[in-house]
Structure formats: C-alpha cells, structure tokens
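Annex B, item 7. Sequence and structure tokens for protein A, then protein B.
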Amino acid sequence: RTLSYRLRFDYHLVGKECEYVLLQTLPASVYISTDELDDLQRLKRLSAVYPKFVNIEVAAERAETFSVLLRGTPKITETLALPVHFRYHAPSDKRCVALILNAKCCIAHTNFHSKPNRTAATVTIPLPELYLNCPIADSELIESGLVAPTDKLYCLNAPESRLDEHVVKDGEPTTRAHLERCNWRRVQVDCRVKTSLRAEIPVGNSNVYGPVLCATILLGWSMALWTIFRSMANTRRINQRLNEQRLLQQKVK
C-alpha cells in the first residue's frame, strides 16, 4: 500500500531557502520496509528520515508506534509517496478489534482501500503534521497566521526520526547550524482527505485453535502414513520387476 500526499504552498515560500518536513506517525499495525525506502532514496524518488531498523516479523500487539519524516523544499505543487505495509495480528476471540488513533489535519490521501472482514482489526492511520524551517534571517516568511496555536520551536532529531520541542538549556550551543536545526515551526494547513485512512486487517479466530490443531495433526499423520505405505508399495513393485528380469536372464542362459 502507498500513502500519497499532494502539497501546495503559497508563492512567497517557493524558491526560498526554506524546508518542510511532513511528520507521518504510523501505528503499531503499520510498518515500513527500510530496504524499500533506501532504494527510493538512492533513486532520488524520496527524501525521508526513518528508523534504521524496523522489525517486520513482530506481531502488531508487540510492535511500537514510530514516525517517518518526509523532507523537501516548498513548491507550488508536489506529490509524495510513502510505501507502507500492514502487520499480522495475534488470534483473537472477538469479532472486531478496533485500533484507531486520533487524526490530525493535513493535505493527504491514500490509494488503498480494504473491504470489511467479519474478524478483523480496524487500523486507522493518523494524518501527518507539517513543519517549516526558514533561515533565521527569513523567519518572517512563515506568516503568524500559519503557525500552530502553541507557537513553539522544534529540533530535528534525525536518529530518533522525530521532532522534539526546543527547550533552552544552560550552555546550549549558539552556532547558526544549531539554531537553524532547532528552528522548526509547526504550521496549520487546509486539509482535504481524498479517501479514508482506514483498513480492515484479517485476524485469526482463537476459538478454532483446538479444532484446527487436531485437524492439522490428523492430516499430518495421514499424509505421513500414506507416504510410508506408498513408498513400501513402490519398493515391492521394483523388487518384483528385478526378480522377473533375473529369472528371464537365467532362462536365456
């Protein structure tokens, strides 16, 4: 599946030395393939910050939420794509398991849709948050009306794939590089969602564990016995043919 985003920026931000980050939080039921994203970055089809390792084998109940940062420079219109995958869920004795997170608004849409299942986990992907970072000299480019009500500054934490609130500490570096790294501001945007960010993931029924186990054992033993008897019959047939050939050779002599 792919999460697709179409972004539109005002003209006064285009062509400047500003940068944006689209922070997409993924629930525990969703994961990314780091190898796939590495290939997209190598082909220059994606610029993103994401965890270096994601355990794709763990079940959703034991996985953790994480974020992916999609980076770029403001353009009049730009389309981004983030490939995602859904995790399997542990068996449940419930008809439906709801795994829904609160959504926040941004311009985004998805190109996936899953039909409801009688035994399924409902997974809802929260909408991303948009952050802008302009050089300190051009900070007025981010209009006050765009800034989120909290009006806080954030630092880009690339190793953890997230944005942390900037808290001034004693002895903190005052270099331009550090100040601009912590000059991210969350902005409000007009959000238009094209399709629902929700999917139904099939979940096994734990109530049928006993019958399925018994049927599996019975079928396994049946196939094993059939294989043994079949092999013995083939062996007898081959020996019989060899004996017949020996008798014919003796008669010829």
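Protein B:
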Amino acid sequence: MAVSNNITAVLNFLAVMCSIPVIAAGIWLASKPDNDCIHWLRWPIIFLGVSIFAVSLAGFIGAYWKKKGLLAVYLVFMLILIVLLLATLVLAFVVTRHSGAYSPPGAGFQEYRLQGFSSWLRDHITSSDNWVNIRACLATSRICPSLASKFTSAAGFFAAHLSPIQSGCCKPPMACGLEYSTPTTWVGEPNIAADPDCTIWSNDQTKLCYDCNSCKAGLLGNLRQEWRKANIVLIITVVILIWVYLIACCAYRNAQTEEIFRRYKQGWV
C-alpha cells in the first residue's frame, strides 16, 4: 500500500508541476492585445490550469496521507479534466485549421480574407453583435498608433512582417491601390471595385479599417497564431496527464488489491 501511495504522490507532484506551464500559457494569451478585446477567450486556459493544479494537489495529499476517499475523488475529477483538455485541443485545431492568409504582391506581410476562416470563429467572434464592442476596444488600443513610431518610410513598411491584426485593421487592403503616406494614412482614389473594404477605409484615426472584413480576418489571424502556440503546451500537458492518470489508476487498483489480501490474512474477510 505504501509503495503504491508513494508512486501516486510522486506522479501527482509531477501533475502539479504540469499545471504551471498551462497557467502561464493562459496568462500569456490573456495578455495579448487582441484577447484583451475578447474577454471570454481570456480565461478558459487559465481555468483549466488552475483546475489541474487543484485536482493534482488533492491527489498528492490523498496519496501522501493515505486518504483513499480523496484519491477516488481525484481520479474522477482528473478524468474529467483530461476529457476537457482533449475537447479544447480538438476544437482549437478544427477552428484554426484554415488561415485565410494570402500574400499581396510587393509586400513582406500577409493579408487575410474573412471567408478563409472557420464559420465557428466568424459566428462566435466577428458577428455583428460581438464586433461592436471589439471594434470599440481596438480603436482605443495602441495596436495601430504604435506603427507610426515604428516605420518612417514606405520601404520599411512594405518590407515589414506586420501582425495579422495590424495588416487587417491599420491600413487599407493593398488591392485598393492607395498610396502610402504613413502606416495609418493613405492617399489617392481607391479602386472600390477591387474590394468592398476600399469604401470603408478612412484616414480618420478613430475609424481606419476597424469596420472592414479585413480587420475581422486579421483579428482571427492573430487568434489563430496565438492559439496554435498555446496548443503545443496543451498537447505536452495532456500527454503527461494521461500517462500520470493511467499509472495512478494502476497504483490505486493495486493498493486496493493489497488491502483486500491484507484483510483476508488477518481474518477480516
């Protein structure tokens, strides 16, 4: 019994350690400027990380102090967390599979088409009801104003690797045929037949292309990049947790078997 408990305690200490990078990934996602404008996307990973920490700590305490009831509760809730993690991974991979990106001629950055992203992302993030608040948040952020101090020439701007949200929200689509003045000021007559966003673009710094489909696509492009990076941490974590859980189940079962034999030898059964 003691050996099985020690194994379970060590494994759960490992699981507690695994929760730390998950929480860190959640905090990293929550700190990104685009996620600051989508409040409900900021917390799921942090919640999962804190839950893994709490459940693993309960398993460690149950194993170390031989609390069989606490160990049983740990096994149930850890299974639930593993299922939630797997569901989160599957959803993240499905909805971020397509990028909607394309490379305009003569530019080092990419532009993005809204229709190139999954319908789930479009419906849950860039729908009319959600975009009103997201647009207001983006307009008051430093995402676009920061470009003015970063690029002082057209050559430097066109050679730059802009983030998807900068490419989509801070400038007009390249197909509009406007001439660069500053990163957020463009002059000339737009080719309105090339892209519907050409009629929406404005040099007004409170408007820019915040109402454009390219801005919505840029936001989804940013989210896609960030979630794919976070997925690496989640994959490693879920593999370790499944391994820990399977060994813990075997240790718990062996401990129960040892207890039955011990009682049998003492004449309790």
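Comment on protein B: DSSP finds nine helices and four strands in the chain.
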